[in-house]
């Protein structure tokens, strides 16, 4: 079972060196224990482009699809047998990156 | 066997077997929805058949077998048997129960799943009432009209989340158990409180069905986890409050304050059981948690045959202990009420007034102020406080009580 662990932020500040170090430790652990699938940080919402190609021509719009105070700034994809394990890992991830996270199951 | 005997047998089977059958089927089929529906169908079949066929020798086994058949019928009907079973094996842990001493009760898994921290508190309450307590027999016979209600939708969404996010169907491992048990107890306490001080103009002031169910489920947790002090404490607390149920509302439907209750109307058997639990916890010599302290406070109250014999210094000392564990303004408010009896209303009022910022929207804050102001002879201020309390209160018996108190002011 895979879960998306979204990192939620209200600033586009980069991780501090301390946060970076904690994230590295956490990632190493995910890999060592077989939970690791993928992880990445994202550019600021202002760097996003929305594409809608449902009409005759693709339409490009500058900016994120929804403006909000809090936004996605990165994510992990983890492998976990159930939500209890996923929540524990997500709690550690939140501590490591010093930001809120959201857990959602893959279908 | 008479019709009444059969009806009693069905009610008893429902009380004793509902959660057990739901739990067994959830384990077997790996799906709360199928388990619940099939169990309800089995009870509906019992309502139909037992009056004619007689009550089976082992109602629990009859219900489990019938529910199993209903579940298999449904899975076949949906023609997804293979997929469902495969999914079930993936979703649910088929390992033997975790080593937790003598615990071997499927219902425990069910309760922990319904009270999972990833579900909203209101959802946990709704789900526990539905899956563990079960709809009433008349509700089952009416074929689940509640399904359409807001609560029904909440339960449907919760079952979908449990499945999609894979909330596990198991007793948590030992290291997580204390936290998770306290989460379960919090749900049961909420169920009890809603029964004990029911809100809404259309409801009875005391919903005995809810208080009784909360007590029954807490007894179950207590039986499953006999070493858990807070489970014992919560059970004792509920028993003390339940013991005063008939004395708490007057014939005219008005709330009767603890100090004004007819103590002869209290249920002595429930009080004795509560005292036994409190003594057991004292003997255990482990620092008490919140429910145990609340139970001890209620033990002091119920020990006094006459309200004038109440050991208020003991009550205040216990509240001091509680404040250290739970520095919430509501605990401080309740402590102040005891302080009024020990040190007088003036000292208590000063303590209550300090809580204004946090409790201005809480009816009991204004009711307490009104009571203290009245005792100090400030009629006008007291009246204003009663007005605010009446505006904010949701319980019909309490509103009646506060209104009479206000109208008695000179």
From TrEMBL, chain A:
Q: Indicate the segments forming the YCII-related domain, all copies.
A: 22-97
Q: Which residues form a coiled coil?
A: none
- SUPFAM superfamilies (alphabetical): Dimeric alpha+beta barrel (SSF54909)
Q: Domain of life here? A: Bacteria
Q: Do you know which Pfam families this protein is assigned to? A: YCII
Q: Which protein family is named in the record?
A: Belongs to the YciI family.
What name is this protein filed under? Answer: YCII-related domain-containing protein
**Lineage, uppermost ranks:** Bacteria, Bacillati, Actinomycetota, Actinomycetes, Streptosporangiales
TrEMBL record, chain B:
Pfam family of the protein (one): DUF6596
Where's the DUF6596 domain? 180-280
Q: Which InterPro entries match?
A: DUF6596, RNA_pol_sigma70_r2, RNA_pol_sigma_r2, RNA_pol_sigma_r3/r4-like, TPR-like_helical_dom_sf, WH-like_DNA-bd_sf
The UniProt entry, under Gene3D superfamilies, shows: 1.10.1740.10, Tetratricopeptide repeat domain, Winged helix-like DNA-binding domain superfamily/Winged helix DNA-binding domain
Domain (RNA polymerase sigma-70 region): residue spans on this chain? 20-80
What superkingdom heads the lineage?
Answer: Bacteria
Give the record's GO biological process terms: DNA-templated transcription initiation
A molecular function (GO) held by this record is: DNA-binding transcription factor activity
By what name is this protein known?
A: RNA polymerase subunit sigma-24
Per the UniProt record, the lineage of the source organism begins with:
Bacteria, Bacillati, Actinomycetota, Actinomycetes, Streptosporangiales
């Amino acid at each position: 079972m895979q879960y998306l662990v979204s990192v939620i932020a209200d600033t586009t500040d980069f991780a501090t060196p301390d946060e970076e170090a904690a994230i590295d430790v956490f990632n190493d652990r995910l890999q060592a224990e077989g939970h690791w699938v993928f992880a990445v940080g994202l550019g600021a919402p202002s760097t996003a482009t929305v594409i809608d190609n449902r009409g005759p021509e693709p339409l490009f719009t500058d900016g994120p699809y929804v403006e909000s105070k809090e936004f996605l700034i990165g994510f992990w994809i983890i492998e976990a047998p159930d939500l209890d394990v996923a929540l524990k890992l997500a709690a550690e991830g939140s501590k490591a990156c010093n930001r809120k996270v959201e857990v959602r199951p893959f279908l | 066997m008479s019709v009444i005997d059969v009806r009693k047998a069905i009610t008893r089977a429902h009380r004793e077997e509902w959660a057990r059958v739901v739990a067994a089927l959830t384990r077997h089929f790996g799906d709360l929805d199928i388990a619940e529906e099939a169990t309800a169908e089995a009870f509906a079949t019992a309502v139909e058949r037992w009056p004619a066929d007689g009550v089976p020798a082992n109602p629990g086994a009859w219900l489990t077998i019938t529910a199993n058949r209903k579940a298999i019928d449904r899975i076949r009907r949906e023609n997804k048997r293979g997929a469902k079973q495969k999914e079930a094996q993936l979703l649910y842990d088929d390992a033997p129960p975790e080593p937790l001493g003598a615990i071997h009760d499927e219902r425990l898994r069910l309760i922990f799943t319904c009270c999972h921290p990833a579900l909203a508190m209101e959802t946990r309450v709704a789900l526990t009432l539905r899956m563990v307590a079960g709809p009433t027999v008349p509700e089952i016979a009416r074929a689940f009209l509640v399904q359409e209600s807001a609560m029904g939708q909440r339960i449907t969404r919760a079952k979908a989340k449990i499945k999609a996010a894979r909330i596990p169907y198991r007793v948590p491992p030992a290291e997580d158990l204390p936290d998770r048990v306290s989460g379960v107890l919090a749900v049961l306490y909420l169920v009890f409180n809603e029964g004990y001080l029911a809100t809404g103009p259309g409801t009875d002031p005391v919903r005995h069905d809810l208080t009784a169910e909360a007590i029954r489920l807490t007894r179950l947790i207590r039986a499953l986890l006999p070493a858990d002090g807070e489970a014992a404490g919560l059970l004792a607390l509920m028993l003390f409050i339940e013991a005063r149920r008939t004395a708490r509302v007057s014939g005219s439907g008005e709330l009767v304050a603890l100090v004004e209750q007819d103590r002869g109307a209290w249920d002595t058997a429930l009080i004795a059981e509560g005292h036994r639990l409190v003594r057991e916890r004292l003997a255990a010599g482990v620092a008490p948690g919140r429910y145990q302290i609340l139970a001890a406070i209620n033990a002091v109250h119920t020990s006094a045959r006459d309200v004038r014999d109440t050991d208020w210094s003991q009550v205040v000392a216990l509240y001091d202990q509680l404040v250290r564990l739970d520095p919430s303004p509501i605990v401080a408010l309740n402590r102040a009420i005891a302080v009024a009896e020990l040190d007088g209303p003036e000292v208590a009022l000063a303590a209550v007034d300090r809580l204004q910022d946090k409790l201005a929207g809480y009816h009991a804050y204004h009711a307490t102020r009104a009571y203290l102001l009245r005792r100090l002879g400030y009629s006008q201020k007291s009246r204003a406080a009663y007005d605010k309390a009446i505006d904010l209160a949701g319980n019909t018996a309490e509103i009646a009580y506060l209104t009479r108190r206000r109208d008695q002011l000179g």
